[in-house]
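Posting this for the archive.
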Amino acid sequence: MIRRLVGHFGAIAALVACAPSAVPNASDAIALVGATVINVDGRPPTANATVLISGRRIANVGPAGDIRVPERATRIDLSGAYIIPGLWDMHTHLSKTRGSALSVLVAYGVTSVRDMGGEMDELLRWRDAIRAGERVGPRMLIAGPYLESPANVQRQRGTPVAEMAEPVERTRVPIGSRADAERVIDSIKARGVSHVKIRTVASLPVYQAIADVAKARGLPLVGHADAFPFREVVLSGQRSVEHLSLPRMQDLSPNELSALFSQFGRQGSALVPTLVTAYGSLLLADSLQRQLFDAGISTSNPRRPRISKFLEIDWREQVSERDSSTRTFFLRVVPPIITRLREMRAAGIPVMTGTDIGVLPLYPGESLHDELGLFVRQLAMTPLEAITAATRVPATFVGVGDSVGTIAPGKVADLVVLEADPLADISNVRRIRGVMLAGRWFDRAALDALLSAAARAEDVQRNDWIR
């Protein structure tokens, strides 16, 4: 697995849908009253606000004195609380975390995700079940399988199960030519994917062919970019660069870099640095990684009982593949990459939150809160800028900014209610009082019920994703 991690940086059951909720019927009118609304559209916060929800959408929002609440509406007193839009995780691997993680994400305020590679059949099944209201989970945008170089697919498929538990035969697709790119991209587009994810690429001509075909089919190209010069990545139209694996820039002058930064931002491309993968995993001391599987520590960690059996197996693989050089390498390369990210952001390139959940020891939902903190500490964002990078920016990036991402009339009611002001301290995003998911309200008791149900899920009891 460390081979896969280094590649990043160098190359619930339907019963959960029945969990208790203060307002079980999304068609009821609901009024959230008394909270401060955090606006991510340039306006200052709205104190003592009323957010009126009708069905799935926000009907009105504003100061309490300006909003008339219908007599039969359910009023939820949120005095002293703060409301932000639902959060986005722009880099997930849900096949690895398994289906039980879907409701866990919601319990942590994550109402939308962009999945970046997994088993397409189950991802589509989960997405459809969420859309139909048959299970609790975030809005899902999916890539389906990873696009890989033929050599990497051959290596992975030949790896013994004891060394690689992931059913790579169903998740990794080789692309060695333009014909391969056309065949595969046409196939996955017909299944309803949202974007094309590249991980490893055979050559620059193959990369260019993948980019051309994706563009012709109207699918954004996203993924790793460290194998190619930045100019080629910009010219390809690649929409997002993932992780700290930035394209090669060392041969560019400051003027050339500045021009390419501007072009990359103008064409709507963005960065998803998944800082938590670096600071929460790769830079974690080896001894701390091994302690994750110490019986006493793992049983006392309140998050561990919700980790799927597959993910635990996969995490053990990752630990077994670490050596002392891994952390040493990343301690050297991460700081200059952070400096570069700051430069790119200052040049106007959007930066969005993502976690790469699936990597040891990142926990669904909670790791996004970690990422927000890293945006403030490492990228010098204000708390408001970090929240915007997890709400309005990703919604706009994927083309649904007219429906989600901000708190405004007509928008889908994806909301997170916090006990304390996140603008005063970004860590307050962890203090969740309730979540509204497309007009359905989950109070704290309901969120805790989701977490308890996830800990009892079948995929936590046994490995349900096998080769």
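The first strand starts at residue 29 and ends at 37. Confidence is low (pLDDT under 50) at residues 1-27.
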